[in-house]
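Feature request, filed as a ticket because there's no other form

It would be nice if the structure record came with a short human-readable summary line next to the tokens. Right now we just get the raw output. Example of a typical job, pasted below so the devs can see what we mean:
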Amino acid sequence: MSSLLLGGLVFVFLSAATSIGMIVRGRLPDHHLSSESKDVIRLATAVVGTLSALALGLLIASAKSTYDNAEVEMRTAAARVLLLDRVMAQYGPETEDARRLLRHLIERRLSRGWTAATTDEASGKALGEYQDIEAVQGDLRSLSPKDAVQHSLQTRAIEVSGMVAETHWLLVESGSEGLPWALLAVLICWLSLLFATFGLQAPPNPTVLSILFVCALSVAGAVFLISDMANPNIGLVRVSDAPLQSAMERLGKP
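Raw output as currently delivered:
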């Protein structure tokens, strides 16, 4: 489910809960909404409000951590690609094919996106990305070092290429991660209950309706941001590919 759709559904649920509360308010006897009754309702909903705030805080912290980790992984991947290219350049002209393959890999990643859904897809005659990096590793293993320096550079290049491949598989394995949907569903139920009690106690005038509308929109916006940040490689709030763009400018240089 997309983050925008999720945020929209949350807004609809909260608005519907508020409307139901107002409808019920108009049909209840007056003594059901006495000051004593409202005090009990406020005390009960305070507990649910506290739980909702805690759950929302946990989701925000989890989404922010996921987003920050993805940013670090992007910078690390770009640094490893640059390091691999420079090690191969130091080895000599024998690595030109491998360097060209590496550049092609990064170009495809930038054109197809930094997502597990597209990274292994074959496109025409193009191989999946993991096959590209394996081709680079194959070229490196086939080198015949002439001295100890080249042997050391070959070993280092193979090691760094393994790190690049590891980054790819980490992306694939974490691609299905996201929000804990059970916690999110419970949170939406709690929030709906809160807004229903708001409608139950609120007089139906334009000022109150406007405030409840803005509050529902704000909560839906928070859920949208949490969902979008929990999937940092897609959506509106995504990790920038600027480190890879910068790496592209340096790849292949002597």
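Something like this underneath would help us a lot:
DSSP finds nine helices and no strands in the chain.
The two ends are 46 Å apart (CA to CA).
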